[in-house]
């Protein structure tokens, strides 16, 4: 009978323990960072009990996948945080102590912290602005803290008809009104900031005045037109330039270039949509003809050098003569007695080259420049000049047939009529053409 009572008592104790186990007790709580581990242990008093117990059997379980068990013992469990949020860790243990069957049934509240750093604030600059329709404004927004995991921002406008905004914060004013432009964090933190944009109608261009209203040019000429745009506070003072006949003249940025003879209009137009413009009439004339005339005793000629970048000319004397002097527009040029080569740059106007030859026969001079006392003859246009005419010496002028035309003691004189002449000064003979 006593044995039966003993068995009944053990059975009742077991029933009471099982009944008790169905009501779990919170034994504590723990925090673990997402991707990290931590250890959860039962209370010290329960650990002491288990150290004295026999037949210990235990389990650790979780409420879901937010945490996972990495290792376990009868008194502690190492868990890993998988997903930010919260979870429960359950502990169940059965054992015998002093011959009695006992159980422990606990749970632990687990907080799983995110391993990301969220944006806490967004600074915006400027916080407000006033714009004209068509203008643009670059906004600057910065997410803090600077070590936040995701600092990207999303830009939005509350009213596209007033102002739009690009993904980089560039605002474009579209219509009159007021609008809030937002920059919000994209990490789900909800942090954000805004700029209040007030859009006003633009001030239109009223007049354009050009520095000239008409201009005459030669082919190849270039000149610059300038434009004055009013009023001074016009929102958009930019202009464009256009020629209505690019075959006559072209224009770029106000710089006009004459292309060919004719007349055209160069227009300066506003770009703000107001259709305001100004006109300069361009007349392009044929270029001035530039001639190089060469007057020689054995024949004269003229060359049109209007479009020539440079002119090459070689003067070769007849037998029995040497090149004595060469003048261009009255200015004497260096010569080589046996033949002179002239390399002339592009002429700015028509010019005349006069050449004088000296006889190399025995009665002539021995050297063009060799004798200090030798006279030197130059011709410029219709005027003859004898440099260094000896005292008391006369100049005798003969025509090509040998007839005496003039005798003079003057060192500068003119000859009537064109033709080839021979000058005799003492025993020296010079040949020239007028």
Concise synopsis of the structure shown:
This protein has 434 residues and is mainly beta. Strand 38 and strand 39 form a beta hairpin.
Provide an overview of this structure:
Helix content is 7%, strand content 54%. It contains 2 helices and 39 strands. The model is unreliable at 1-22 and 364-372 (pLDDT under 50).
Our count of helices gives 2
**Unreliable parts:** 1-22, 364-372
Mean pLDDT: 88
> Cα distance, first to last residue?
171 Å
**Multimeric status of the protein:** single chain
Q: Give the class from helix and strand content and strand pairing.
A: mainly beta
**DSSP strand count:** 39
Q: Which value, in Å, is the CA radius of gyration?
A: 56 Å
Strand content: over 45%
Helix content: under 10%
What is the element layout, followed by pairings?
Elements: H1 2-21, E1 25-33, E2 37-41, H2 44-52, E3 54-62, E4 67-72, E5 76-81, E6 85-97, E7 100-113, E8 121-125, E9 128-132, E10 136-138, E11 140-144, E12 153-157, E13 163-165, E14 170-173, E15 177-185, E16 192-200, E17 207-210, E18 214-218, E19 222-224, E20 227-230, E21 239-243, E22 249-252, E23 255-258, E24 262-270, E25 277-285, E26 291-295, E27 301-304, E28 310-315, E29 321-328, E30 331-333, E31 340-345, E32 351-359, E33 376-380, E34 383-387, E35 395-399, E36 404-408, E37 412-414, E38 420-425, E39 428-433
Parallel strand pairs: 1-7, 9-16, 18-25, 26-32
Antiparallel strand pairs: 2-5, 3-6, 4-5, 6-7, 8-11, 10-14, 12-15, 13-14, 15-16, 17-20, 19-23, 21-24, 22-23, 24-25, 26-27, 28-31, 29-30, 29-32, 32-39, 33-34, 34-37, 35-36, 35-38, 38-39
